[in-house]
Amino acid sequence: MEYPTIEQLHNKIITGETTIKVVVKEYYDRAKASDLNAFREIYSEEDIAEQVAVAEAMLKGGTATVLTGLPIAIKDNILFAGHVVSGGSKMLEHYTAAYSATAIEKLKAQGVVIIGRVNMDEFAMGSSTENSAYGVTKNPVDTSKVPGGSSGGSAAAVAAGLCVAALGSDTGGSIRQPAAFCGIVGLLPTYGTVSRHGLMAMGSSLDVIGPMTHTVADAEALYKVIKGQDKYDSTSMASPESGPLKKRLAVPAGIFANGGVDSEIEKNFKNTVDKLKVEGFTIDEVELPHYAEALAVYYILMFAEVSSNLARLDGIRYGDRAESLSINDVYGDTRGALFGPEVRRRILVGTYVLSHGYYDAYYNKAIALRSIIRKEVETVLEHYDAILTPTTPTPAFNIGEKTDDPVSMYLGDLFTVPANIIHHPGISIPSGKSSTGLPFGVQFIGARFAEDTLFELGKTIENIR
């Protein structure tokens, strides 16, 4: 089903063809009626009415923007003052945010209506939303399939028309992978261009908030609102404009050589390459000698940062607490009972790679290789607009298919993690469907701050698919 774009809804509101109240009620009612388990919480009618009143006042006062009055969902790890935010975990089931994330503040200044928080893998650890402590979200394209993760709730909510757009977070592909699985657009901005203030940290050197939408133009509209330097985030920065399009794309040599990529995805990707060539693009295979090591680098760095970031959630300093007889039992029982198995697994591995005797063998080597991969990619992107790959090696898989095989799940991040470890932007665009109707996505990874280039490339894919 086709759902209206941000611009289309805005124009209908401005011309009086519809009203903010009618638009919000339509999406709100669909969200309430949905059985996808996309939402962790749909906010109360009173809460929504207050937000609608603010948007209507902006419209009446002539200060409305293209986003004013439009219903948007937020991932359950982005703080919204006065509302519960749990990170998909029992550990924070009762935590109420004391302040709003900078990205939320910027959206609220535009008059958006935040209708609820959406499901996610616990503390963003997963690729299927099956690690949520509150049950798996179903893929609206095929409810027997996962929607991807960790922003699976965001992707499913947008794809099913339960909101106009959603915010997700991307640590190693957690926006782009579920976007591909659900047939929508997902943007990973350049690290630092969107403030992380108010985002629950999984991997602090990797996490980025980004938009998930129906079209590239919608993603662009949201990104331009939430981006910018923030005094509350020392890693944030302003972003310069992209240069002119070269119409040159690079494909990493040998990306299909080792198997593991679904044959229909490979065929779809090659078909997309052929269409781009017809549009006047030069597409070359390029050597990136260490590109294939990005997945290993990512998992070492991410596990280490997970171990560090979640240390505070122990039942003493932060988080809910298990009732136990001694202080040692409080720590062990709280973390054992309130963290899910994937979270515990990542904490254990992260603690191992940071431990004395293994720090140099693993963590420091990963840091060094991260720099090498960054230099190789940046050298290529001096001559090309972007690196082009499939977004995922497979389409959406069955619920329960990979829950007992975490390594297989990790391999699903093969194409997405390079962008995160080198702090470059990436975008996933729907590029077709499988013989059974499951969506495919192609991904562009651009130079730092080249979001405008990615938007232009993404719109080209939308026009030729």
What does this entry show, briefly?
This protein has 465 residues and is an alpha/beta fold. It has helices at residues 6-14, 20-33, 45-61, 102-109, 152-159, 176-182, 216-226, 263-278, 294-309, 327-338, 341-353, 359-380, 406-410, 417-422, 451-464, and strands at 39-42, 71-75, 113-118, 165-170, 185-188, 208-213, 248-252, 282-286, 386-390, 426-433, 439-446. The two termini are 17 Å apart.
Key phrases:
465 residues; alpha/beta; Amidase signature (AS) enzymes; eleven-stranded mixed beta sheet; 15 helices; 11 strands; globular
Structure characterization notes:
Strands 1-3-2-4-6-5-10-11-9-7-8 form an eleven-stranded mixed beta sheet, sandwiched between helices. With 465 residues, it is of the alpha/beta class. The mean pLDDT is 95. Helix content is 38%, strand content 13%. α5 (152-159) runs parallel beside α6 (176-182). The protein is globular. It has helices at residues 6-14, 20-33, 45-61, 102-109, 152-159, 176-182, 216-226, 263-278, 294-309, 327-338, 341-353, 359-380, 406-410, 417-422, 451-464, and strands spanning 39-42, 71-75, 113-118, 165-170, 185-188, 208-213, 248-252, 282-286, 386-390, 426-433, 439-446. The protein has one domain (1-465): Amidase signature (AS) domain (Amidase signature (AS) enzymes), CATH 3.90.1300.10. The chain has 15 helices and eleven strands.
